[in-house]
Automatic annotation (TrEMBL):
GO terms for molecular function: energy transducer activity. Its main location: membrane. It is found in: Cell inner membrane. Residues 1-25 form the signal peptide. InterPro entries: TonB, TonB-dependent_transducer, TonB/TolA_C, TonB_C. SUPFAM superfamilies: TolA/TonB C-terminal domain. Gene3D superfamilies: TonB (3.30.2420.10). This is Protein TonB. One of its GO terms (biological process) is siderophore transport. It comes from the Bacteria. Pfam families: TonB_C. NCBIfam families: tonB_Cterm.
């Protein structure tokens, strides 16, 4: 293995600390439960970074409904991870539902 390949492999092995944290929230309701998405293993192995934006409704009871990925780069790589995570979120109850809430998740290797 050449020097560049060895350095890349070493960097990839030490880049186990990644972020998949929410970036921009467009809701004003208090979150009572939040789950960070898991970094997809295939994307992590291949060193793929990117983001996904999810749009959803928060019911009056505080549950997340109708979550869909509205933007992602690269497309299709992080969709399942963010949808699985957002389904576990909960918000404080309110008088009515909040529609069109968007959340961006950034996926970066190495922090």
């Amino acid at each position: 293995m050449n020097k560049t390949g060895t350095m890349f492999l070493a960097a990839a092995m030490t880049a186990m600390a990644f972020t998949a944290a929410p970036a921009l929230a467009q809701d004003d309701r208090e979150r009572t439960q939040v789950e960070a998405p898991e970094y997809p293993r295939g994307a992590e192995r291949r060193g793929i970074e990117g983001y996904a934006v999810v749009e959803y409704t928060v019911s009056a009871e505080g549950t997340v409904e109708n979550a869909t990925v509205v933007e992602a780069s690269p497309e299709g790589v992080f969709d399942r991870a963010v949808l699985r995570a957002i389904e576990g979120w909960a918000y404080a109850p309110a008088a009515s539902a909040s529609e069109g809430v968007q959340q961006r998740f950034d996926f970066n290797l190495g922090g």
